[in-house]
Automatic annotation (TrEMBL):
Reactions that this protein is recorded to catalyse: a D-alpha-amino acid + O2 + H2O = a 2-oxocarboxylate + H2O2 + NH4(+)
Protein name: D-amino-acid oxidase
Species this chain originates from: Leucothrix arctica
Keywords from the named record: FAD, Flavoprotein, Oxidoreductase
Pfam families, per the entry: DAO
Family assignment from sequence similarity: Belongs to the DAMOX/DASOX family.
Stored SUPFAM superfamilies: FAD-linked reductases, C-terminal domain, FAD/NAD(P)-binding domain
Length: 353
């Protein structure tokens, strides 16, 4: 099978890896051409992301599909990441310590609403209630600011730096993948050439062309929109938080995602906009004050970056796999790229091979 993948972001890279691996496992020949208009070091959406894998807490404010796809992806990450580490020798940090949901006293009504919805939607084994003394034992640096927490054990955070590094090493060392950086491909429409498997930019014919262009597929998928998100990344040697923390907030879900060696990502704003210009002062103040309110040890943290990115979303904020003859589009990952991409990629591969 000969395939082209247009867009080497999160979905495109993951698809290239898993497709080749699947064909190797099943003794099928495969050649993948991976094209991206950027270089591989480009700070794209998947790199900006906090990379939380949170099927249960995300489902509370969205649809049950979020939980269903998220649980599938969670299990696939647990299976796939050790394979990637073994094949490349690169450690990929996957924090599987769960998520804590907390609220400051002023936001307690939001926390209680979240709790009611979570209790109705979440299997009992996937959610616990922690008192202040349990918080003191399990996550002591939170117990000064919060009296209680909801705990979701089967959630976590992927360190996307180490993930991309390992994945790029794997793709580079794989003879089945040819990676074209700085190659722009367009006209991936149902009337364009890609439908018949021909890609003008490569001047080649393929069995399948995958459109994994994220936000930039809007020219061919008119229902796609962009949702701006902003994050801050800090290094805080004085802070020792081990789990992902979600702070109920009246305007958007705020979270702190722990990374290795006392690094933390806090995000994310959610703004209906296709403006990907730098982070605003207002958003930076909101994110940083939320961080400081959680633990005053963050006051001496060093800001590593403030980044804005655009999430590709359809009207229902759910992802879609759209097949138009030999053209297959995977898009609409919204704020759930890490939560949805493994499940979608696996579904596509099972349907083809
Ligand atoms: C602030 C923020 C926080 C987030 N946090 C999380 C989180 O905690 N958990 C989670 O699951 N998700 C999170 N996400 C969402 C996640 O990052 C996205 O859903 C995911 O990155 C989308 O992946 P994609 O492959 O569809 O698009 P992208 O990763 O954007 O990749 C698209 C690629 O296509 C390339 N391309 C575009 N047009 C062309 C063209 N014409 N020719 C060639 N190449 C092209 C681009 O250069 C790009 O590399 C977050 C997103 C943001 C912005």
């Amino acid at each position: 099978m000969k395939v082209a993948i247009v867009g080497a972001g999160l979905a495109g890279r993951l698809l290239a890896w898993r497709l080749v691996q699947h064909c190797r496992d099943t003794d099928q020949p495969i050649a993948v051409t991976l094209c991206d208009r950027q270089s591989r070091s480009f700070m794209g959406t998947g790199r900006i992301a906090a990379a939380m894998v949170a099927p249960f807490t995300e489902a509370v404010t969205t649809e049950s599909t979020t939980r269903e796809l998220g649980v599938v992806s969670w299990r696939l990450w647990q299976k796939w990441l050790p394979q990637l580490e073994a094949a490349t020798g690169h450690k990929v940090e996957f924090n599987q310590q769960g998520t804590l949901v907390v609220a400051h006293p002023a936001d307690l009504p939001d926390w209680q609403r979240f709790q009611q919805k979570a209790q109705a939607d979440t299997p009992p084994e996937a959610m616990q209630y922690w008192s202040q003394s349990e918080l003191q034992q399990q996550e002591p640096e939170l117990s000064h600011a919060f009296r209680q927490a909801m705990y979701f054990p089967e959630e976590g955070v992927i360190d996307n730096d180490s993930f991309y590094k390992a994945l790029d090493t794997w793709l580079d060392s794989t003879q089945e993948v040819t990676w074209h950086e700085g190659m722009e491909c367009g006209e991936l429409s149902s009337t364009g050439e890609a439908t018949r498997g021909y890609l003008k930019a490569c001047d080649e014919q393929f069995d399948y062309v995958f459109d994994c262009r994220g936000n930039d597929a809007r020219e061919d998928q008119s229902e796609l929109r962009s949702v701006r998100g902003e994050v801050v990344r800090v290094h805080a040697p004085e802070v020792n938080l081990t789990r992902a923390i979600r702070l109920t907030h009246p305007r958007y879900p705020l979270y702190i995602a722990p990374r290795p060696n006392h690094h933390y990502v806090i995000g994310a704003t959610t703004l209906e906009s296709d403006d990907d210009s730098p982070v605003t002062v207002r958003s930076a103040l909101e994110l940083l004050s939320a961080l400081y309110s959680l633990n005053t040890g963050f006051s001496e943290a060093r800001i590593q970056f403030l980044q804005a990115g655009l999430r590709p979303a359809f009207n229902d904020n759910l992802p879609r796999i759209v097949r138009e003859e030999q053209l297959i589009r995977i898009n609409g990952l919204f704020r759930h790229g890490y939560l949805f991409a493994p499940a979608l990629v696996d579904e596509v591969i099972q349907s083809l091979c």
